[in-house]
Amino acid sequence: MDKTSQLDRYDRAILEVLSKDGRMPVTELSRVVGLSKTPCQVRLKRLQSDGYITGFRAVLNPAKLSRDHVAFVEVKLTDTTERALRTFNVAVREVPEIEQCHMIAGSFDYLLKVRTADINRYRQVLGEKISTLPHVGNTSTHVSMQAVKDDAL
Length: 153
Description:
Elements: H1 9-20, H2 26-33, H3 37-49, E1 69-77, H4 82-92, E2 98-103, E3 110-116, H5 119-130, E4 136-143
Antiparallel strand pairs: 1-3, 1-4, 2-3
Helix pairs in contact: 1-2, 1-3, 2-3
């Protein structure tokens, strides 16, 4: 059975509200979703223990941190054996400028979202870090001109 079918309207409301404001106090959350405080707390703890909520974090302003240059990098590997993929996956997690890494089914193997201060720093990261990751054969870069929708922000 699909686990999301086990969620009722209150669970879904709690998830929706917290996805927009993870710091909302339980008293306010309970008011917004229409539950008293104790049942809301119990549901919140269950949603966390069942893995629907995996954590809470601060959403940072990339411009304030000089990381508002975004590039998407297509990566084609020279070897796609399971061992090579694992090696690449471990190494890519060590590059702080790589914000996201997705394995892709298509004409390339991975899509990376890279944040840097500017194009010069991006070029340096590409040459010194991304291109030297295990099994990287070639890359293709797409520079973002504007984030039209970014739910992570």
